[in-house]
Amino acid sequence: MEEETQTAPREDVDSLAAVDADTGNIFEKLDAWADGFFRLLPNIAVALVLLVVFWFLARGVAALVRRSGRARGRDNLGDVGASLLRWLVMILGVMLAVTIVAPSISPGDLFAGLGIGSVAIGFAFKDILQNMLAGILILVRQPFEVGDQIVSGGHEGTVERIETRATLIKTYDGRRVVIPNADIYTDAVVVNTAFDKRRSQYDVLIGCSDDFDEACRIMIEAAQGCEGVLSDPAPEAIPWGMDADGNTVRLRWWTDSKRSDVVHVWGRVIRDVYNALNAAGVDLPYPTRMVLFHDQTEATDGDRTAQREGWPAKGDSPEARRIADAIRTAATRG
Q1: Exposure check for the chain: N or C terminus, fewer CB within 10 A?
Q2: How far, in Å, CA of 227 to CA of 221, rounded?
Q3: Does residue 220 belong to any structural domain of this protein?
Q4: Consecutive sets of 10 residues in the chain, 334 residues long: mean pLDDT of each?
Q5: Alpha carbon distance 74, 140 (integer Å)
C-alpha cells in the first residue's frame, strides 16, 4: 500500500509565512528603537542637566522675589509672585529640554501647543483661575492687608493670610473663614481698620419735659471722662428726635478702629452716661402704653345691657365716672 502523505492546506502555509515575516519586522523595529535611544542618550543627558539648572534657577528667582516682597512689607505678594515665577521658569526649562531631546520639534510648535492647551485648561479650571487672578489683583492693589479687620459676605474678622485662591480671616469668636478671592473682589468689603479712628454712636431717650441742652452737656462730659474715648474729634450730643415715649439725643464718640477698643469703650460710655443722667435727675423713660376700657368708667358698670364696650359716647350714653370713684365705691361696699 502506498503511504498517503498529508500536506497542510495552502491557506495555512501562507498565514504562517506572514506571521514569520511580521515577527521579523517587530524585532527590526525594536532594534531601531534601541539604536535611536542610544543615539539620543547624549541629548537626554543634556536635557536632564538643563532641567536641573532650570530647577535651581527657578528656586533662586523665587527666593529673590520672596525676599524683595518681605523687604517692602508685602509678604503675601512676594510668596504669590515667587510661586508663579518658579512655575514659569520650570515650564520654560521643560520646553527647552523637549527641543533638545527631539530636535525635530521647534520652540514655535511648543508655543502653539501651549496656547491651545492654555485655552483648554482655562475652560476646565475657570473658577480656580478666576480666584487666582482676583487674588493677584487684591495683592497688587491692596484694598486691605494682613491684620486688617474686614466685613465680607456676612463674615467679620481679622485677615490672617491672602493666598492665590482665597483669603483667610479669623472671626472674633475664634473661627477661621475661607472666602474665595473672586467673591471678595466682586463684592463690597468693609475695612474697619482702614483708618486709625472709628466713630460710634448711641441714641438715648430722655423725658419729654427734660432740657435738651442740659442733657447733651451731661452726656458729653460723661463720654469725655471714659477711658479710650478720643479727645480729637471730641464727643458730641445732638438732639435727634421727638418720639412718642420721649425725646431722643444721639451721642457720638471716636475710638481706635480696632474691634476690641470699640467694644470695650462702648460699654464704658453707656454705663457712665446712664449713671450721669440718673444722678442729675434726667428722666430715662421706658416705652409707656395706656389701655383704657371705656365700659369700666361709667355709672352702668356691670350692667351688660347698658355698656357701650368702648364705642364713642352719644346723646343717650350712660353718664361717665372716674375710675377713682369706682374704686372708692367698691371699697365701701366691701
Answers
A1: N
A2: 12
A3: yes
A4: 49 50 63 64 78 84 79 70 77 78 67 58 65 82 89 92 89 94 90 94 93 95 95 95 91 95 95 95 82 54 53 57 66 73
A5: 9
Q: What angle do CA 280, 285, 286 make, to 5 degrees?
A: 145
- CATH code of residue 261: 3.30.70.100
Residue among 165, 161, 80, 163 at smallest CA distance from 131: 165
Q: How far is CA 9 from CA 12, 15, 152, in A?
A: 6, 10, 85
Supply 259's cell numbers: 474691634
Beta strands 166-171 and 155-162, pairing class:
antiparallel
Whether 266 is in a domain gets the answer yes
The set of cell numbers assigned to 274 is 446712664
Number of domains in the chain: 4
**Cell numbers of 62, please?**
523665587
Residue 9 belongs to a domain: no
